[in-house]
Amino acid sequence: MPDFGIGLYRRKRGFIPALWHDFGTVAETPRPWIPAFAGMTNNLTTMPKITTEWQRFEELSADLLYEVLRFRQSIFVVEQRSPYADLDGLDQEAWHLLLRSEGELAGYLRLIPMPIRIGRVAVAPQLRRRGLGRRLMEEGLRFCRERYPAQDIILAAQLKLVPFYNSFGFAVISEPYDDFGVMHVEMRMRPGD
């Protein structure tokens, strides 16, 4: 039977667990043997604590509102070099989803009711490609199904993110258009999709 790296080796009586001193041994090395992993550092990382919270505009403190607006501006205006009017008058009627990693704002999503519209989906640059955008969307869609079960859900997607939104069941419903220098399309998810 082959050894699959689980510390088993063959003795005359069959397979038995390897002993501590058998790891990383070299036949010519006199005892005491040094384990192959001696001196290695633990390079496993722990997953940071992720929390989500929904807030209505009137529930946002001045400090929290400032944190949200600064977060959105840093991504949509500064990082994407798109000088658009983020303060569009729709925040007051919206639900705001805040995703925190170790207490810091790491992601955001805005949900506008009637018609249901998801927007301003953003993840902090240093935390991208870790599933946080997916977590934001899953929570946003769960919230929509719970509160607005029979409604279509609309969003404006940057062209490069169409496959991401397709993976949730959204379909493109418009031609591409320029939104302050960033190409977008409208997408829709029907109830039950």
What is the element layout, followed by pairings?
Elements: E1 8-11, E2 14-17, E3 50-56, H1 62-79, E4 95-101, E5 104-112, E6 116-123, H2 132-147, E7 153-158, H3 162-166, E8 171-172, E9 177-179, E10 182-189
Parallel strand pairs: 6-7
Antiparallel strand pairs: 1-2, 3-4, 4-5, 5-6, 7-10, 8-10, 9-10
CATH architecture tag of the largest domain: 3-Layer(aba) Sandwich
Number of strands: 10
Average pLDDT, all residues: 83
Helix content, binned percent: 10-25%
CATH topology name of the largest domain, in short, is: Aminopeptidase
Structural class: alpha+beta
Low-confidence segments, ≥5 residues, pLDDT <50?
Answer: 1-29, 33-43
The string of secondary-structure elements, in order, is: EEEHEEEHEHEEE
Q: Tell me, what's the shape?
A: globular
